[in-house]
């Protein structure tokens, strides 16, 4: 009799509770990753290119998952996943980094251990093959949190990391994007001089602001870690640094949640986005979904910015909100099921 009653109650619950909500509450994720948010027009995405993106995201997720499955720490998993994305010309990080106004590839990265709050980051480097590994070296092999420019490169070389000629990062598609951005900025300047506020020829230049890769993982001991790597903004000038390498802004992890951001960095900096997610969860008791939506759908847009983020909490609940056309992203569950998306689902 009790068994029959229990089945009736369960059936009633299924009627009134959305299946998607039940699934979200029951599913435990161990890693989430992203490959950048922006104006990713589905109409301009070829089938072959979409497969290439999804294949590389799946490879990164599987690499991280295998480490987690074998009992390795979350730091190892996020570093491994990000390195794979850094080595691919598809993403704006490492090999696929965009060009600055001066025709250089300047790389930024950060990593953070949620258990100890140790963190490391680098910015403005041009010769380190895998910036995320350099960020981890800063965390583990120095007394500092952040190193920049030639000093960071010297440190990375002394730490035994792979150093490459700057030409390694050059790709034709990114060079073409720089030439387009320079032309659009020139037309925009001409329009503003004519008091038309940059509306000449419908110039928006939005794609130049986006592109980052990141990962957040939860290991078997319940420890969280987050990592982010980027080539910055196309046509950026004067040593500009965005949110990705700034701890608490584009990258953050503690014992509650891990966060990695992607988007228009200046607005993420002003909102201290990654730490704000953790603060909303800690001090207001918001869920990871509610906290991330507060930032991505309210606070960042309120200032004029856009982008997205990935987050994973201590219970394995994840969130991947974005307010752009698309965001390369994916997740893997505790049992190894991989999910990869580009557009809104």
Which SSEs are present, and which pair or pack?
Elements: H1 2-16, H2 19-26, E1 29-38, H3 47-69, H4 74-86, E2 107-113, E3 119-125, H5 131-141, E4 146-148, H6 149-158, H7 172-193, E5 213-218, E6 224-230, E7 251-253, E8 257-263, H8 265-271, H9 273-284, H10 288-303, E9 307-313, E10 318-319, E11 326-333, E12 338-341
Parallel strand pairs: 3-4
Antiparallel strand pairs: 1-5, 1-11, 2-3, 2-6, 5-6, 7-8, 8-9, 9-10, 11-12
Helix pairs in contact: 3-4, 4-5, 9-10
- Strand tally, please? 12
- Share of residues in strands: 15-25%
Q: How would you state the average pLDDT, rounded?
A: 89
Largest sheet, in brief, is: 8 strands, mixed
What is the CATH fold-level name? Answer: Glutamine Phosphoribosylpyrophosphate, subunit 1, domain 1
- The coarse overall form would be globular
Terminal-residue CA separation: 42 Å
User: Strand sequence of the main sheet, in spatial order?
Assistant: 4-3-2-6-5-1-11-12
What would you say the CATH architecture is?
4-Layer Sandwich
H and E string: HHEHHEEHEHHEEEEHHHEEEE
């Amino acid at each position: 009799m009790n068994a029959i009653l229990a089945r009736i109650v369960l059936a009633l619950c299924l009627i009134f509770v959305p299946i998607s909500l039940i699934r979200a509450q029951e599913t435990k994720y161990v890693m989430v990753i992203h490959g950048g948010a922006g104006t990713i027009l589905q109409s301009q995405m070829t089938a072959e290119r979409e497969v290439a993106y999804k294949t590389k995201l799946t490879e990164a997720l599987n690499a991280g998952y295998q480490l987690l499955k074998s009992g390795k720490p979350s730091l190892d998993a996020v570093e491994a996943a990000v390195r794979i994305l850094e080595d691919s010309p598809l993403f704006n990080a490492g090999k696929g980094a965009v060009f600055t106004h001066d025709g250089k590839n300047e790389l930024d990265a950060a990593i953070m251990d949620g258990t100890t709050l140790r963190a490391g980051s680098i910015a403005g480097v041009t010769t380190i093959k895998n910036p995320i590994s350099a960020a981890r070296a800063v965390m583990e092999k120095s007394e500092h949190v952040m190193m920049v420019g030639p000093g960071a490169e010297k440190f990375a070389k002394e730490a035994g990391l792979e150093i490459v000629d700057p030409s390694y990062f050059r790709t034709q598609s990114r060079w073409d994007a720089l030439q387009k951005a320079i032309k659009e900025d020139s037309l925009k300047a001409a329009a503003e001089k004519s008091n038309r506020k940059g509306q000449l020829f419908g110039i928006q230049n939005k794609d130049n602001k986006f592109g980052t890769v990141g990962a957040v993982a939860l290991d078997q001991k319940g420890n969280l870690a987050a990592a982010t790597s980027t080539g910055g903004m196309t046509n950026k000038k004067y040593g500009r640094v965005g949110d990705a390498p700034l701890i608490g802004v584009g990258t953050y992890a503690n014992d509650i949640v891990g966060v990695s951001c992607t988007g228009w960095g200046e607005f993420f900096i002003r909102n201290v986005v990654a730490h704000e997610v953790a603060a909303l969860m800690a001090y207001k008791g918001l869920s990871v979904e509610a906290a991330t939506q507060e930032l991505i759908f309210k606070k960042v847009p309120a200032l004029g910015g856009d982008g997205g983020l990935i987050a994973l909490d201590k219970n394995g609940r994840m969130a991947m909100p974005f307010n752009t056309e698309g965001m390369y992203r994916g997740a893997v569950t505790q049992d190894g099921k991989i999910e990869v998306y580009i557009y809104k689902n």
